Amino acid sequence: MTVPTTFSEMFTFNSAVMGFGSDVWMEAVLDSFDSIVMNVANSYRLQEECDVLSIRLAKFNKGSIRLSAYKAVMLASLRSLVPKEWNSTYEVAWGWFWENVERMLQANLGRPAVMEIALTRFMNSLDDSTRDKVRRLIFVTFFQMAPAGQEMFKQSTTRLHFIADKVLEMTVDILRDPQRMCEDVSALGLRHVGYAPPTELFGPFVSSCIEVVRNLTQDEKLEDAFSWSLGLISRMLVRTILEGSTIVMKAININSSTQLKSAVDCAPRGKRAVWMLNITVGTQSISPLMWSIESGALDAAQGIIKDLLTVRADRDRYYYAAEELFTRHPDIVYRLCQEARSLVSHLLDGLIWRSRTTENGKRRVNYYIKHILVGEDGRLNDAMSWIADLGDPKLVRHPVLVLTSDIVWNGPAYFCFLTCKVWLVFTLVAFMTAQSILSMYGKNAHGFEVGNATREAQFALRLFVYLFCMGQLAIYHIRASAKAYKGKKVFKLCCLRVPEYLTAFQEWISLVQCIALIFMVSTCPKLYCMVHWHDQEDAFLGAEEIRITYSILSVTTMLIFFLRMTDFAVMNNTLSAYLIMAFSCLKEVFLFIVALFCVIFAFSASTLALFQSTPHFKDIPTAALSYLEMSFALFDPNEYEKIHGTVLIFILVVLFQICIFVFLLNLLIAQLCSVHRSMYDDIVGHARMQRIVTIYATLPYVAVPLLTKWIGSLKLDQKLEFGLGDVGLAGQGCPKTPSYTKQTTCCK
Prior knowledge:
This protein is mainly α. The protein is built from 34 helices and 11 strands. Helix 6 crosses helix 11 and helix 29 packs antiparallel against helix 32.
């Protein structure tokens, strides 16, 4: 048998021994006993706790409640827990304490049940018109009693009516379910701490509510029940607000980083983080940091983050609240990305420690990336992905993210990425062999395919691509689309709902390839000519009608294969940056081509309007083709002499070339230079973002045991030195990374 070591355990044991095990009401008293004892010196709080306890006791049969029995069990339990220290002085003190509590409980014992019935009957008797009248009169009366209250209630009439309804409901709910309502009222009070409401307005508000109810009824019991219930709620709210209104919260309310610093300077170093991360009232708590972020007090939030992530020394002990910050708010990076993007860089700056002293012109740097790298579940954190989603190339180049992404990439992500891409390379080789290599080696002088071995090998490779490449892509996109539609992760494109995953370049281009392969299967000449397999001439002639279509699809699929191979550029940031720059310029090239065709069409139509036809300008299509050849310097120079004979056409040709070569081409160059100039400073950041996206797309394919083993090998809990022999804090990601830089920061 386990020996009881706590008061609750000893009380339960003694109540069973003394024959009170069936008195369930004692458990309700025991639940509130700690709060009652801790607030015995505060008469107002003691009365509040006793009032709440009396409501809970009202749920039991009044005849079964014997408060003197609780005293006997209580004293017996205390004697058993501290037998050596216990004496008559303690006996008298605890006896006096319980007599006062018993007197307060006896004053209300049985009343809450009667009050609940009266209030419930009253609430049910209110019709819609009466309720609307009560809503309006509550605030009219309140504003007359306390005009200053108008500054606190600037919401819409609908919101004010909602508040009035909740006030009426809470007076009944606290009598029905006091335990839940105490939690809700405490949470409500803590939420209002951030708004800094004047507590002196609660009295007039309660009085106005009571005045309105008094005018609606002549029942004194109802009036007494309403005033007692609402008064209890008011006292709980005022207490919660006063206890939660710390000097830190007051500094946040005025969004002052200076006052915040003055406030936290009053805290001991060991409690400094608690003051800024947790305010507890009863069983409810609020985070000043999170409140400052949610309320938009970003100056105060920035001050809190900087203070938490400052290394402070006290003799041989260091204080650094990164562990407390990420323990209290594991999603702090996500919350900052969603609500306070400007603070993300300050958070990352705080995860770097730079030495004051130099060695060979450089300074030691420690990166505390444990919580950026690993989440609370011990697996890889999504922090880098959240930051990359912001699309800020400068932020992604922050040293913390550069180090973290390089560690993950050089760890499990790199090998897994190559493994995932092996299949793409293999299918490309098979497709290229079938479509480009064997098709050339298997032709005679007339261009017809010869050799059964060549045709069979080509047909086998095509079947392989159709079955395994196309099949794999089809299954993947069917599953991904079904998952997206089921999770409603779609976006509207014109009138269609398109899965969100197709916004990625590699995803939609692979879908296009899958569709192209499906059409290739349906137009494959070898499938059409299976019955003429050994008759080459008939086979060729029978497939002539679809060969052109198949060839176009084959070219399209081949190009898509190589476009998908561009994903390998992520392996090198320089190559990835170059590729991103090239894709960024495609928009300008597209606009140039559109403008070019518009100019060609305009000049083609204008040339035909001269009624001076030449072989190169006999109709609009022919004229457009001639102008297109001129644009790309493919027009035969000798043909210009023929055009020279027709002066007006020659003038149009000259104007066309001026428009193309002098204006549009130079405009394209200027646009490309402008794009390059605007992206040059951020292009490495874009490459880093692409790598982070690739990392998080690859890691789901890494085996969990392998990932766990790799995280353990980083030794994130190993403490780092601040200097020679000066052991500092844990949390650095990789001891092999460079640890010196010319930058510096402060340490207190």
